[in-house]
Specification:
heterodimer; A: Porin; 16-stranded antiparallel β-barrel; 16 strands; B: 5-stranded mixed β-sheet
Chain lengths: 405, 228
Amino acid sequence: MLRRASVLVPLAWLVLAAAARADGWELDLDGRLVSSNADPSYTRGGISGVRFDQDQSGLRLGRARFALTESIGELWSVHLDASAWGDHDRIPVGLTEAYLQFRPYPFAGYRLRVKAGAFYPPVSLENRAAGWESPYSLSYSAIDSWLAIEVRTIGVEATLDWLGRRQGHDFDLGVTGGVFGWNEGIGTFIANDGFTLTDRQTPYGGRVGLPSDPLLMNFEPFRQLDGRAGVYGGLELRWLDRVVVRALRYDNRADPTAVDNATNAIAWETSFDSLGVRGETAGGWTGILQALKGNTAIEPGGFYLTWPFKAEYALVAKQAGQHMLSLRYDRFEVDSSIGGDGSETGHAWTAAYVYTPSEHWRLTLEWLRVTSNSYYRNDVFGLASLASETQVQLAVRYALGSALR
Amino acid sequence: MRPPARRAEWKTAFQGLAPLAALACALAFHGPVHAATLVITVKTPDGHTLQGAVVTAYPLDGTPRKPAPIKAVMDQVNRAFAPDLLVIPVGSTVTFPNSDSVSHQIYSFSPVKRFQLPLYRGTPYPPVHFDQAGVVTLGCNIHDEMVGYLVVTDAPYYGRTDARGTWSSELVHGRYRITIWHPRMRDEAADLERELTIGEGDHAELTLRLVKSLTPAPLAERPHSWDY
C-alpha cells in the first residue's frame, strides 16, 4: 500500500506539474447516490437497460476524469482524456479519447481541421460538453450510449468548413471524412445486449462485459483482425449559433467472414446512417431530434447473420440561469435474421434537473425509466423478456482546472 | 455589448474629440465658416432605435481632410474580444493583448487586411497596421466562438450610435456621404448609403432605417467548453 502510494504521489505531482503549464487541463470527480430496481448491466455480467442495478443502489463513483490539451508548436495540439469508472474494468484508468489535431489558419473563408488518433465520430448533438458528456442529463440517449460503449474512430478525420458567418452570411457548411481501423468489434454489443442508456464510456484497452458473460464474453470492441479500413463521410450545416444539422454515413467495411484464430473473435460488418438537428433559442430552450439506422452482420462458416437496428430520440431542455430542466424520449429497435435471437424493442424516458452554481460545482438529479422487450433476457438469462427498469441518480460533480476558465 | 476595456475606453473618448478638433482647424485656417450639428438616427425595420451602429460622414466637396490615424487597443478577456468592435481611421494601428490565462491565436482572412498572430498570452506582438478602408472580421483559431470587428474608415467624421440610436457631430456646411454598418446587419451597406447636404441653419437630421431585420444576437450564457 505504502509502496504504491510512493509511486502514485510523485506521479500525480508530475501530471499536475505538466498540466499547470498546459493550455487546458481539467480534473473532475463525479459522485452518485443511486436508487435502482434494474437487473445487472453488462459491466456486471448481465443484461439491462441502465448503468446501475438494484445491488448497486447507494453511493457510487460516476466518473473520475483527467483531461489535458497541449499545443505542440504553432498548428498542432494533443488532447488526452482519461477516466476511471469504478466498476472493476481490466484497467482502472483508461483513455476514452486521445488524438493529435492539426489546425491551420482559416484561409479565404475556409477552415481545415485534421484529427489523428482515437476519438468519437461526429454523430452526437447531445454530448457537447467536455469529456463527451451531455450537459442535459447524466445518462446519454440510446444512440450516444451505444457510441460510448463500442464505437470510436481510431484513425484520421478531416473536416473542411466554409465559414459563411464570418463573411456576412447566416450559415456555415462543413464536410467531414474519416478513415479508421480497429473497428471489427463494433456491432457485438448491439446484436447481443441491444440498446442501453448509460454514461459509461469504454476506454481503450478496456473490455465490454465480464469473462462470465454468456453473450459478450469479455469482448474488446477496438480490435483489428481483417486488415480492412472503415470509412465515414458527413455533412454539417450551421445556421447562426442557433441550429446545427448533422448527417453521417458510416461503414466499418469489415469482412464478416474474418475470425481471429487466437481469440475466436469475429469481425462484425457494421454500417449506419445518422441524422440529427439541434436548435437553441435566446430564451434558453434547446431541442434535439436524432435518428440512427444501421445494420450489423457476421458470416462465420458461411452462415450470414444480420441484425438491422435503429434508434431515435427527442430532447427538450430549458435553461434559466444556473438551472436547467430536460426531458428526453428514446425509442430503439434491434431486428434479427435468426428467429428472434438478439432482437429487442424498447423506449425510455429521461427527466433531469441540473443545477450549476459555479464553474466548479454541478448537481444533477435524474430519473430514468427504460422499458424493453429483449429476446436474450429470457433465452439466456432466464428473466422475463419484458422489463421496465427505473434508475434515479443524484450526482455531485466537482471540477478543477484551467480548461474551465 | 461587453463593457470596453479601460484603455480602449480612453481611446474612444479621445476619438470623440476629433470632429471638434477638425472644426477648430477649419476655423483657424479659413476664418469663420458655417457649421451645423448633424444628428443621425438609425432604426431597425420595426422602428426600434439601433445602438452600436457605425456611422461615417464623408465630405464630398473639395479635397477632404484625411482623418488622423490613432493607436487603438482590442483586448481579449474571458475568451472574447473587448471591445468586440472598434472604428479606426485608415493608417491606424491596433494592439491585441491577451489578458486571458489561455493562449489565443488571432487571425483575419478579410480582404481588407489578412494577418495572423501566432499563439500567445500577454502582449508579445507589435501593433498591427491597417491601411485600407473596410471591415476586418477577427477570429481566434482555437476558440471558434470568438469574433471581433474593426471598421477601418477614410471618413473624417465617424462614431457609433448611442442607446437612443443616435450619433451626432459638428460639420461644416456642404455635401456628405453618410454610411452605416452593424455586425448583425443583413442589408448591403451600399444600399443604406445616403447623400446629404448641410446648408441652411445650424442643425440637420437624418433617420436611416434598415430594410432587412438584424440577425439574432449571439446566444449568451453558453459555457465556453461546449461544442457550439
